[in-house]
Design goal:
Radius of gyration: 18 Å
Shape: globular
Number of domains: 1
Strand content: 15-25%
Distance between the termini: 36 Å
Order of helices and strands: EEHHEEHEHEHEHEHHEEEH
CATH architecture: 3-Layer(aba) Sandwich
CATH class: Alpha Beta
Helix content: 25-40%
């Protein structure tokens, strides 16, 4: 993860996602941010999770405003989970995901992940691609129903925009790669992306993931050590890129995740699309 100058966070894309998507479940709703105030609420949630809870290092301006922001925020779509039982407006935002398509990346001059990985192979693919990032959920809502609702929102977005591939940086807590030897080695040996799709960490930031030999790995134990978000990507058929990146600002070790949506359509997206229709 990285931070940059204030992007004038009070803006939204001209056509926020274009889908008009809204999925409800009880008091909960998932949809795209529609106003500057909702984007501000997502940045406030990100600050609470990344900086106050996970001890990332904010810039002075971030600390002053208690907001996580960078200059991608004004160009992308912000997926929100809202609990209307908490009220309306900013108070209802309990989860968020940042979605960057080709058009948003073009407006910015590139994808966020390009600061850590060579993603030229992904960018060269035909069709629409989607970068996922800045995922966080309020501590009181880290449960299966909230995550399922969040993924139903992503599914709707993927269907609407005919997205063929999703990717992004996902994080393991901490910067001591020796302490992360088991999960990093497991990801390298068991989930390395096919060469035509394989991003590689930039040489200046490259950290080898193959710390332990394959025969020294106990897969069940390794999976247990993975953060829930990364386990979720793997359940969707996800792959990882070559090499990890240490992010000192966010106190994390990052990997690049790639998910071909054709691999997950029957397994996951159709399931939740069907449930949303039946509900």
């Amino acid at each position: 993860m990285m931070a940059a100058a204030d992007p004038s966070a009070g803006t939204t894309p001209d056509d926020p996602g274009g889908s008009g998507m809204s999925i409800r479940s009880g008091t909960m709703e998932v949809r795209l941010a529609r106003t500057a105030a909702e984007i501000d609420a997502s940045q406030a949630l990100r600050y609470r999770v990344f900086y106050e809870e996970m001890s990332a290092n904010p810039t002075p301006e971030m600390a002053r405003r208690s907001r996580d922001f960078d200059d991608f925020d004004a160009q992308c779509d912000h997926l929100l989970v809202l609990d209307h039982g908490r009220g309306e407006g900013a108070a209802s935002v309990v989860g968020t995901y940042r979605l960057i398509r080709r058009s948003a990346a073009a407006r910015h001059g590139g994808f966020y992940s390009a600061a850590e990985y060579d993603i030229a192979k992904l960018v060269a693919l035909p069709g629409e691609i989607l970068e996922l990032g800045r995922s966080c959920v309020d501590a009181a809502y880290r449960n299966r129903p909230t995550m399922q609702l969040l993924w139903r929102g992503i599914a709707e977005y993927v269907f609407h925009h005919s997205i063929g591939l999703m990717f992004g940086c996902a994080s393991l807590p901490g910067t001591d790669t020796a302490a992360l030897a088991l999960p990093l080695s497991y990801l390298h040996h068991y989930h390395l992306a096919p060469e035509p799709l394989r991003p590689r960490a930039l040489e200046s930031r490259y950290v080898a993931m193959e710390i332990l030999p394959r025969e020294a790995i106990q897969p069940l134990r390794a999976v247990a050590d993975l953060p829930p978000l990364i386990k979720g990507y793997l359940r969707l058929g996800g792959f990882v890129g070559d090499g990890a990146v240490v992010d000192e600002q966010f106190n994390t070790t990052d990997i690049c995740i790639i998910v071909k949506t054709e691999l997950v359509t029957d397994k996951y997206f159709k399931h939740y699309e069907r449930r949303s229709r039946e509900g």
